[in-house]
Specification:
The protein is globular, with a radius of gyration of 27 Å. The protein is 72% helix and 0% strand. The protein has 2 domains: 68 residues, no CATH class; 231 residues, MetI-like (MetI-like fold, Orthogonal Bundle), CATH 1.10.3720.10. Helix 6 crosses helix 9, helix 7 packs antiparallel against helix 10 and helix 10 crosses helix 12. By secondary structure, the protein is an all-alpha fold.
Length: 361
Amino acid sequence: MGAYLIRRLLLIIPTLWAIITLNFFIVQIAPGGPVEQALANAQFGQTTGLSGSGSAENSRAMLNTSPGDSQYRGSRGLDPEVVAEITKRYGFDKPLHERYFKLLWDYIRFDFGDSLFRSASVIQMIKESLPVSISLGLWSTLIIYLVSIPLGIKKAVRNGSAFDIWSSTLIIVGYAIPAFLFGIMLIVLFAGGSYLDWFPLRGLTSPQFATLPWYGKIVDYFWHITLPVLATVIGGFATLTMLTKNSFLDEIRKQYVVTARAKGLDENKILYRHVFRNAMLLVIAGFPATFISMFFTGSLLIEVMFSLNGLGLLGYDATIQRDYPVMFGTLYIFTLIGLLLNILSDITYTLVDPRIDFEGR
């Protein structure tokens, strides 16, 4: 197992390199980069700053009828020196290959640089946003597993019963409801929208959080996170519940279960000592995907709706603003977390079933 883990850890390096390289060259050819946006803002400032004499003089000084040889369409009408200064400010004055190798060297050292549009380093912004996303992702994943696994087992044991039918109907209806729509409903009903005002609408803590006693901090934290977690998990029960049910049904019908029953073993012992271990393999394998979906894609709109400054919202805003250091930094962190969770999933495989030998494969 040790040699297998070393190989998997070493494979993280080329995987990260391939993803970062592919996205780096894609964004280079994408229109509307940070330089174009800065040039557009400069030209907009020229047109709106002509009312005062000083502003008019500054604008005339920046204007130039000759656009020069700049590669940016937005540079038309701007002084070439202004264009060169803006290009240098965002690091685009260097050749493409030089910027690429600098990016790789910085990321090897976990140096993500500074945001192009905020006065903060990327690593600082990630550190501030990561706890929010981890809180939302962990609690959502935990609740989904705590509900779906027992429910799936009970549905397998009572397959075809009335309980199985109406519980399947409920989880499918929940799966069909978009998370953001359910979040809006929760806000309207319980966050002062139109009816009750039981829960707060913004952030994970109150402004006076630091002054609260330890038990008050716990209550305040769960008071704030209740609605975002409920909105996130609404569509997450169906897949895991049906996966658990089908896994148990497959195992229950196997010969070793028939033999155990013929020997007179207790049904609970058969179910939880023998069937559970084998049926849980598929469920464990789906944990990384479940956590990552809750961690980013599943919580993005929820973070926006409940004003949670998480990593998903940070990466989304950076993509819209073409804030390349933040874009690549969040992408790097997400990829690294996903790869490490896949390795953790393999380790959990061997803990659940020692017969599995990845190194032997």
